[in-house]
Design a protein that fits this description.
By secondary structure, this protein is an all-alpha fold. The chain contains seven helices and no strands.
């Protein structure tokens, strides 16, 4: 069984290393109300849940105790985006190879660019 909303909310705040007062201010509620949420005395509305997810950088499913995974699984659109990135990288490699064949002095520049892109994308 995953943690309840109140347990998850309290744990996330402690992990972040902030006081109830600091978290309440960031989440735009009073400290007393945050305490009630963390102790399971009151249940929040959707707007609070959304702000808490953004603040703690977790999914709503995690915060609501529906999963143990803190971030949501990749969506089909993310998969499609990654596939597009790979196709674009392949096309750029072909174009760069052709440019380097025509203009050999450009080869070191394109190698540096390629290396930097791979580091930036963590390929």
């Amino acid at each position: 069984m995953y943690a309840s909303f109140s347990q998850a909310l309290s744990r996330l705040r402690r992990e972040k290393g902030v006081s109830q007062r600091q978290a309440a201010q960031a989440l735009e509620v009073s400290q007393a109300l945050l305490s009630h949420y963390e102790n399971g005395i009151r249940e929040p509305g959707l707007a609070f849940v959304s702000r808490a997810c953004d603040y703690y950088q977790v999914s709503a499913d995690y915060l609501l105790g529906r999963t143990g995974e803190r971030t949501p699984p990749q969506t089909a659109s993310q998969d499609q985006g990654e596939a597009l990135l790979l196709r674009t990288a392949d096309a750029m490699s072909v174009a760069w190879a052709e440019l380097c064949r025509r203009e050999p002095e450009l080869a070191p520049l394109f190698r540096r660019l390629s290396t930097q892109l791979k580091q930036d994308l963590k390929c």
